[in-house]
Design goal:
The structure holds two protein chains of two kinds.
Chain A: E1 4-13, E2 25-35, E3 40-44, H1 51-59, E4 66-71, E5 74-75, E6 86-89, H2 101-111, H3 116-130, H4 134-138, H5 147-159, E7 165-169, H6 177-194, E8 197-202, H7 205-211, E9 214-219, E10 222-227, H8 229-234, H9 239-244, E11 251-258, E12 261-264, E13 269-271, H10 274-278, E14 283-289, E15 294-297, E16 305-315, E17 320-327, E18 330-337, E19 345-350, E20 355-359, E21 365-367
Parallel strand pairs in A: 3-8, 3-9, 6-7, 7-8
Antiparallel strand pairs in A: 1-2, 1-4, 4-5, 9-10, 11-12, 11-14, 12-13, 14-20, 15-19, 16-17, 16-19, 17-18, 20-21
Chain B: H1 12-43, H2 47-51, H3 65-71, H4 73-76, H5 85-117, H6 120-135, H7 142-150, H8 179-182, H9 189-200, H10 204-213, H11 217-228, H12 230-245, H13 249-254, H14 263-277, H15 290-297, H16 302-329
Helix pairs in contact in B: 1-16, 3-16, 5-6, 5-9, 5-12, 6-9, 9-12, 10-11, 12-16, 14-16
The chains are: A alpha+beta, B mainly alpha.
Chain lengths: 375, 337
C-alpha cells in the first residue's frame, strides 16, 4: 500500500560525449506528481520527452539530481532500486535469457534468501492469477516464447514478489495489434485486481486512456498536464495537450477576431456569439475544433468554411466516418455520418459550444469548452 | 551457403565460378594442412630417413623411436636439459592457467564496468585509456617491463636511494619467478575489447530488471550476465591459452632458472643444441656435447624436433576443441526481441 510523490524532481542529462555543446540538459524539469495508493497513472508523450526517465527515477535506476521522491512519507530519493521493492515491466521484456520462465520469476526469491516453500507458493499463486496456460510457459526456455508470452512472463515476474509500486515501460508496444488489444485488457484486469499503485508509460494515447485512472502528458522533460481523460480532452492546459489527445487530432485554424466577427482563412466570415467574443482578445487567434465540433453540410451555409475533402474514412464499429481534408491549407478533420457520400467539398459550421481558442503566437489556451454535462 | 544465390545455380557461369571458389578453398585448406602432415610424418621416421634428400612423403618403416627418445631426453643429455620434459610441461601449464585465472576475471570485470556500470565521459575516457595500451608495440615496452619485474615499481636497473640516505628504496622483485609471466598478463587490452563489445550488446533493461529484482551488482554479473556470456568467455579463454602457452620472448627475458622455464624455452634450447651438434646440418658440426652425440647416435635428428613441436602444439589444439563446444553451447543471447 504505497503512494508515490515526486517533489520538484530535476534530472540532468548530458548530450553525446564529445559533442560541441556538452552543457547539461534538463531531462526532467521540476516534476511534481502524486500517485495515490492503488491508482494507475499513465504517462504519455512523444518519444524523447523524458517519460522513461521519469520511470527510472521512480524505480531508482536513475537518481534525481534535485528534488525528492517519496514512497508514502518515506524519502527514497537515494535508495537503490534493489531496496525499493518495485516491480518493473520493460518494452523489450528483459527476461533473463539463460533461465527458463519459472527461474526468471524466482530470481527475486533467490537473491532475497526466501524459503523454498514461500517461493513455490508464490509461484503457484501467480500462475493461477495469470490465467490459463501460464503453468506451461513457466517450464519453457525464454527464447522459445513468442512476444506476447514473453511479456506475460515479464508481468508475472513482476507481480510474484508483491511489489509496492508497479512500473510499466511501454509493455505492449512490441506486440502486434491484435495481441496488444488482448494483452492490454489482461493487464488492466490484473491492475484492478491487485490495486497496486502503477505508473504506465506509453506513447499511444488510446492505451494511456484505457489503462490510466489519470493521464499525465509530458513534453521535453516537463509535465504539461495531469488529469482524467475529460480534463485533457475538454480543458487542455495548452495547445500541445489539445493536439496530442484525440484521434484524429484537433484541427487548428488561424483566425482574426474583429468585433464579433471571426475572419478565417479563405476570407470566410464567421459571426461569433457575443458572450464568447467578449472573453477573447481582438486580433489574431487560433481556433481549435475537434472533429465532432463541426456541423457538416453539403451546400454552402451562412458563416461556414469550405473544406477540400481528400478522403472519407468510414469507421463501421462507430457508425460514423471521418472526413479528412483542409480548409485553406490547414489540415482539418470532421465527423460525418457513416452513409455520407463521397464529395469534393464540405461546408463546416463551427459549434461554438465546442470551440477552443488559443493565442496566435503562443500555446496559451484562451477559451476552452469544458467537459459537457452528459446527464 | 550464401556466397552464391540458390537461384540460378544451373547457369554455366555460376557453375564455373562455384567450382573455382571450391578449388581455391580446397587449395587454402591443403596449404594449411601440409606443414602438419610433414611434422607428423617426420616424427615417425627413423633419424636417417628424416635427413634424407629428397625427403620421403611417408616413412618406409614408421617407428615411434623418436617419441621414446624425446621423452627420455633429460636422462640421456643432462647437460642440455636439466629437468625432465614433464617438468617444463608443468611449468607451461602453471604459467598458462595462472594467467587465465588472473587475466580473464580482471579483464572481463573491467570491460563490464566500462560497458555497463560507468556512465558518460568517465566510461569513454577509461575505454580510451585501456585501448591506448594497444597502440604501443609490445617490443617497445619490453625493456622497461623487464626492469619493472626486477625493481618494481622502478623501471630502472637499480632502485634509487631514499633521498638523504644510502639505503635504496625497497622494491618488489618478481623476476625469475612464475609471477613474472603471470602478473604482467593480468590485463589484456585486446580481450578487453572483445568483452566490451559483447557486453555492449546486452540490453541495459536486463540488468535493470535484475536490479529491480534486488540483485546486487556482483550477483547480477554472476547469475545473469555470466551465463549469457559463455561464448565470449570461451573465445577469450582460447586466445589467452594460446598466447601464453606459445609465448617465447617474454619468458626468455624474465625466466633464467631452467627449473621454472616453460616448454617453449626448453624446446628452443634442445633445437639449438642439435644445431650445434650438426644434426640439422652435418657440415656445420662443431663442439657437440657428449649428451647430444649420444642422442644422435641413438637415432634422433629432425624427427625429434618434430616430436617436440607436436608436443607443444597438441594442448592448444585440445583447448580449441573444448572452447568450441562452449562457443556453440552458449549462443542464447539472440532472440530477445
Amino acid at each position: 500500500m504505497t503512494s508515490v510523490t515526486l517533489e520538484n524532481v530535476v534530472k540532468y542529462y548530458y548530450p553525446a560525449v564529445g559533442a560541441a555543446d556538452s552543457k547539461p540538459v534538463k531531462g526532467l524539469n521540476n516534476i511534481n506528481l502524486h500517485i495515490a495508493d492503488g491508482e494507475t497513472v499513465s504517462v504519455v508523450g512523444p518519444s524523447g520527452c523524458g517519460k522513461s526517465t521519469l520511470l527510472k527515477v521512480i524505480a531508482g535506476l536513475e537518481y534525481a539530481d534535485e528534488g525528492r521522491v517519496l514512497y508514502n512519507e518515506h524519502d527514497v530519493t537515494r535508495v537503490t532500486p534493489q531496496d525499493r521493492g518495485v516491480g518493473m515491466v520493460f518494452q523489450d521484456y528483459a527476461l533473463y535469457p539463460t533461465k527458463e520462465g519459472k527461474n526468471n520469476m524466482s530470481y527475486y526469491f533467490e537473491v532475497h534468501h526466501r524459503s523454498e516453500a514461500e517461493k513455490e507458493q508464490r509461484l503457484r499463486e501467480t500462475a493461477e492469477l495469470m490465467g490459463i496456460g501460464f503453468e506451461m510457459l513457466m517450464g519453457r526456455q525464454v527464447d522459445t516464447l513468442s512476444g506476447g508470452e514473453k511479456q506475460r512472463v515479464g508481468i508475472a515476474r513482476c507481480i510474484v514478489r508483491e511489489p509496492n509500486v508497479f512500473l510499466m515501460d511501454e509493455p505492449i508496444s512490441n506486440l502486434d495489434a491484435k495481441l496488444r488489444e488482448r494483452t492490454r485488457t489482461e493487464i488492466r484486469r490484473l491492475l484492478k485486481k491487485f490495486g497496486i499503485t502503477t505508473l504506465y508509460v506509453t506513447h499511444d494515447q488510446q492505451e494511456a486512456i484505457f489503462m490510466g485512472d489519470r493521464i499525465a502528458v509530458m513534453r521535453a522533460g516537463s509535465l504539461e498536464q495531469i488529469g482524467t481523460f475529460d480534463d485533457l480532452y475538454y480543458s487542455p492546459a495548452n495547445l500541445f495537450v489539445a493536439a496530442l489527445i484525440g484521434t484524429p487530432p484537433i484541427s487548428v485554424l488561424p483566425v482574426e477576431l474583429m468585433q464579433t466577427t471571426l475572419r478565417a482563412a479563405g476570407q470566410a466570415e464567421l459571426p461569433l456569439p457575443e458572450q464568447l467574443a467578449g472573453g477573447l482578445p481582438q486580433g489574431k487567434l487560433r481556433l481549435g475544433m475537434r472533429p465532432e465540433g463541426w456541423q457538416v453540410a453539403r451546400e454552402p451555409q451562412p458563416g461556414s468554411l469550405a473544406m477540400n475533402v481528400t478522403r472519407i474514412e468510414r469507421l463501421f464499429t462507430e457508425r460514423a466516418a471521418f472526413a479528412h481534408g483542409d480548409v485553406a491549407g490547414s489540415p482539418v478533420n470532421a465527423l460525418v455520418p457513416l452513409d455520407f457520400p463521397d464529395v469534393k467539398i464540405l461546408y463546416l459550421t463551427p459549434d461554438w459550444e465546442r470551440a477552443y481558442f488559443f493565442a496566435a503566437d503562443a500555446e496559451t489556451a484562451l477559451h476552452l469548452p469544458g467537459a459537457p454535462e452528459l446527464f | 551457403m550464401s556466397l552464391f544465390p540458390t537461384v540460378g545455380r544451373k547457369q554455366v557461369k555460376v557453375r564455373i565460378s562455384w567450382w573455382l571458389v571450391v578449388a581455391f578453398l580446397v587449395f587454402g585448406v591443403f596449404m594449411h594442412l601440409v606443414p602438419f602432415y610433414i611434422m607428423i610424418s617426420t616424427s615417425i621416421k627413423p633419424a636417417t630417413e628424416a635427413m634424407a634428400m629428397p625427403p620421403t612423403l611417408w616413412p618406409k618403416e614408421p617407428t615411434f623411436a623418436a617419441w621414446g627418445l624425446v621423452l627420455k631426453l633429460s636422462d640421456i643429455a643432462k647437460s642440455v636439459l636439466s629437468q625432465p620434459l614433464s617438468k617444463y610441461f608443468l611449468n607451461s601449464m602453471i604459467m598458462t592457467f595462472g594467467t587465465m585465472i588472473l587475466s580473464i576475471p580482471v579483464t572481463s570485470l573491467a570491460a563490464y564496468a566500462v560497458s555497463k556500470l560507468i556512465k558518460g565521459r568517465a566510461s569513454k575516457n577509461l575505454f580510451i585509456f585501456f585501448i591506448g595500451t594497444l597502440m604501443l608495440p609490445g617490443i617497445v615496452s619490453l625493456i622497461p617491463s623487464f626492469l619493472l619485474t626486477r625493481n618494481f615499481p622502478f623501471p630502472l636497473p637499480v632502485a634509487p636511494n631514499i633521498p638523504g640516505t644510502d639505503v635504496p628504496f625497497p622494491t618488489l622483485r618478481i623476476w625469475n619467478t612464475y609471477w613474472a609471466v603471470i602478473i604482467p598478463a593480468g590485463f589484456s587490452a585486446s580481450n578487453f575489447l572483445l568483452f566490451k563489445g559483447y557486453f555492449d550488446g546486452i540490453p541495459d533493461s536486463i540488468i535493470n530488471a535484475a536490479r529491480v529484482d534486488g540483485g546486487s551488482e556482483f550477483n547480477i554479473f554472476r547469475r545473469i550476465i555470466l551465463p549469457m556470456s559463455i561464448p565470449v568467455y570461451a573465445v577469450v579463454s582460447y586466445f589467452t591459452f594460446g598466447a601464453t602457452w606459445d609465448s617465447y620472448l617474454w619468458p626468455l627475458v624474465v625466466i633464467q632458472d631452467s627449473a621454472i622455464a616453460p616448454l617453449t624455452l626448453a624446446i628452443r634450447r634442445i633445437s639449438d643444441a642439435f644445431g650445434a651438434a650438426g644434426t640439422t646440418n652435418p657440415l656445420t658440426a662443431v663442439g657437440a656435447s657428449a649428451g647430444i652425440s649420444e642422442l644422435v647416435s641413438q637415432g634422433l635428428s629432425w624427427n625429434g624436433l618434430m616430436v617436440l613441436g607436436l608436443l607443444q602444439a597438441i594442448p592448444t589444439f585440445i583447448f580449441f576443441i573444448i572452447a568450441r563446444e562452449y562457443l556453440l553451447k552458449g549462443v542464447k543471447i539472440q532472440g530477445l526481441k
